[in-house]
Design goal:
275 residues, alpha+beta, Phosphatase 2c, domain 1, seven-stranded antiparallel beta sheet, five-stranded antiparallel beta sheet, 12 strands, 30% helix, globular
Length: 275
């Protein structure tokens, strides 16, 4: 991983889920991040279990997005995200495992996308499918549990939680599923542009990205709020732990307990960035 500057700390891991372990298959998730000065770009992706080459699709979209966005001004990020995803799709068309070299066969590489670009106290989540992005603005008020008001944008992509003094506490880029909870959207779909969502962020103290193997630990059943006892203690611990190896091991231990494997047997990818 690329070295991060002192004012940005990134801790990330991916855990192979119980289903894949039982079938002796590797983790289908992937993540990538890069920093340049005080700019951060990070992406996590969940390769579809139903896709033959989902892991490859996840790797290609993460790497392509990070390589493009790290050199893109924040004001141009939305256009650059669409361009990078189109580039990733193009790479799948000519991939050696795409026998017909057709767009129809890139569904064999299906994967979701959850990413963030952040620079100078402003940023944007970009999102296709499930998984989640969370920006914590005030961990003190988050832990205190003040009265909440919930507001969604017109596409249902973001939820802004504010305390009773109207101070924003966190911004959430929610999972998006199809008609059924087990369905989601992928960047390999023909209508991927219609599924691409953006959520603006201001003045965050920490950012989280996660695939759907983690969302049921972090979010309420309706995926509209943070559950107590997950994001708050992880954020507090990672901000205070100066040793990256210890921080990473603690995060792995949290995500890979026997109870966690029983609650969700899917692959789990989790990325935290302290700003």
């Amino acid at each position: 991983m690329k070295k991060t500057p002192r004012n940005i700390r990134v801790i990330a891991t991916k855990i192979t889920g119980g289903l894949h372990l039982a079938k002796q298959k590797p983790c289908q998730d992937f993540y990538q991040y890069a920093c340049s000065g005080n700019k951060l770009v990070a992406v996590v992706s969940d390769g579809a279990g139903s896709a033959k080459y989902g892991k490859i699709g996840a790797k290609i979209v993460c790497e392509t997005l990070v390589n493009v966005l790290i050199n893109t001004p924040l004001k141009n990020v939305e256009e650059a995200v669409a361009k990078a995803i189109q580039m990733a799709r193009g790479k799948l068309v000519i991939h050696r495992l795409n026998r017909s070299k057709s767009e129809a066969e890139i569904l064999n590489f299906s994967a979701t996308v959850v990413g963030v670009a952040y620079h100078n106290n402003r940023g944007v989540f970009f999102h296709i499918g499930d998984g989640a992005g969370i920006a914590v603005h005030d961990s003190v008020s988050l832990a205190n549990g003040a009265d909440n008001l919930v507001r969604q944008n017109d596409r249902g992509a973001a939820v802004f939680i504010r305390n009773k003094t109207n101070t924003e506490r966190y911004t959430l880029s929610r999972p998006a599923n199809g008609n059924f909870s087990c369905e989601t959207y992928f960047y390999t779909m023909a209508n991927w542009k219609e599924c691409l969502r953006f959520t603006r962020i201001d003045k965050a103290e920490a950012l989280f990205l996660m695939t759907d193997g983690v969302t049921n630990f972090a979010l309420s059943d309706d995926m509209c709020r943070l559950k107590q006892g997950f994001i708050e203690p992880i954020n507090s611990y990672l901000r205070k732990e100066p040793n990256k190896a210890r921080a990473l091991q603690a995060l792995k231990n949290t995500l890979d307990t026997e109870r966690a494997r029983k609650l969700n047997s899917d692959d789990k990818t989790f990325l935290w960035a302290g700003l």
